[in-house]
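Message: I would value a second opinion on how I read folds in token form. Give me a protein, with the fold worked out from its sequence. Write it directly below this note and I will take it from there.
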Amino acid sequence: MTYFRRGLIVSFALLCANAHAQVAEIGPRDLHVEALRPKTYSYLVYNSAPAKDDVQLANLATVTLSSQRIEGKQAWVIEQAWRDERGTSHTAHTVHAADDLSTLSQKSHWRNARGTYDIELIGQGLEVAGPASREEVQKMYAGVAAASRAWWLNWHSDLVLLPLLPFERGGTLRIRLFDVGMPDALHVDYVVKGESVIEDAMGEKHVCWLVETESGAPGQGNVQRFWIDKQTRTVMKQEDLYQGNYRDKYLLSVPVSRSYPVSTTR
């Protein structure tokens, strides 16, 4: 073998080793749990078609994070309420262990074209009420059992929990994610692409990590991009491309809440 060929092989091996070293497996001890603070915030969420630049399936998503003591143990509780023009489209009440953010329980309500669903997850136990078939429910059970073989982070709580990843390391961060309905947990790679500055309506500049992921399905053309405030570890903005369409999320400067009832009498 010539020196030139040996050099090419060694260089290629070094490139592969460096690429592999760039991927960091993230577990519960790597998360910045200390950054969590009780708060309420809202997002405008909507879809659009690339050729139209329109607004479809608009929702207001309000998230409330609180620290509570449940059954004698400290926990973080995430309340989600999604509303569209027809009313409440989705709610979720998720309880996370304070130390490793494992999911202790989750109650969720959904409305879609088939009807309404209520799903309750407690540990590995699952209850489903709604128009789901027996086969669909069995697949949900099987997915929970498969995911529970090891620690996983709740994908449904990503607006709160995703910013806790150690993005300051740079490179690619790989974490095990699961949500009820999946056949098993997925190892999902989040790639730190660099920095981006967002200026809000008040003129305040937010220095953000720019993070991208293919959501555990590389090569399928589905990409999520996040702007995560470095100081507060908050998702400021999110852009998704999936199945040829866009979905955007924008953090509102004031959370959505009605301070007083509107009188219906004159």
Summary: Confidence is low (pLDDT under 50) at residues 1-20.
